[in-house]
Design goal:
The chain has eight helices and ten strands. It is of the alpha/beta class. β9 and β10 form a beta hairpin.
């Protein structure tokens, strides 16, 4: 069997670090090159071997590789790539329920399944046929950060065990149903603005706030009615028996 020439385009720092280490171990079994797109955060670049623009470098990619794997790549794969070579994306959400931006956030807010999906790339965002889908359990203690971290762990575990099977066509594509919704960056921005006059159940507010809580990011906010400034907020959640921790703190 001919050795596949695989290009991995990754724009997530944790995935980049792990996939680059895996690629070193795969030498001899598969010719893998790990890069980032021009839209990658600066910290990603320390863990990859270079940068490729999927649009501007299209001819180079087609001449050097015969399989493209997108791992949270922020650049849209152009049609002249996915129509000429197999292009597969790993999406950090369950398709078709959570297409688009920040699927783990909507999983918490709307009670949708959390997990990841490996799918064929076509001309519509997160729309192509599904090769594999895996759900990740959620708990009431989950924030955006904890749930996303667990999804990343599940993705990396699956890639480690199934990458060769994937690039050699070992998964049968299953067309997606028409159900689900595409969540945009604008949807996320609207969710981040919490209207102090908004009414609803505390459960809805709690789920929304924990879904937007991610260390290092300013997401959920209210607006100070006097100054007009934003006031950012997030929750920290702790497990424990009812009443015990709070009583101990009062001693």
């Amino acid at each position: 069997m001919k050795t596949r020439r695989v290009l991995i385009v990754v724009d997530n720092v944790r995935l980049a670090e792990s996939l680059n280490k895996m690629a070193v171990q795969w030498v001899g079994s598969c010719d893998v090159h790990v890069v980032c797109s021009p839209l990658a955060p600066p910290e990603v670049r320390r863990h990859v071997s270079g940068e490729l623009d999927l649009v501007c470098d299209c001819k180079r990619i087609l001449s050097c590789y015969d399989f493209l794997f997108s791992a949270h790549c922020r650049q849209i794969i152009p049609s002249n790539l996915y129509s000429a070579m197999p292009c597969v994306n790993i999406h950090p959400g369950c398709l078709p329920e959570t297409r688009g931006w920040f699927p783990h956030v909507w999983s918490i807010i709307y009670g949708l399944p959390a997990g990841f999906t490996v799918h064929v790339v076509d001309g519509i965002i997160d729309h192509g046929s599904i090769l594999y889908r895996e759900e990740v359990n959620k708990t009431l203690l989950d924030t955006s950060e904890s749930l996303y971290s667990r999804v990343l762990s599940a993705e990396l575990s699956w890639i480690k065990d199934n990458f060769f099977r994937l690039v050699n066509g070992g998964f049968s594509p299953v067309p997606q149903s028409a159900d689900g919704r595409v969540f945009s960056k604008a949807d996320f921005d609207r969710a981040c603005h919490i209207d102090l006059n908004e009414t609803g159940s505390f459960r809805d507010f709690f789920d929304r706030l924990r879904a937007l809580s991610h260390e290092g990011f300013k997401n959920a906010y209210v607006v100070d009615e006097l100054s007009g400034d934003r006031v950012y907020l997030q929750v920290q959640l702790y497990p424990g028996s009812f009443g015990v921790d709070s009583c101990e703190d009062c001693k």
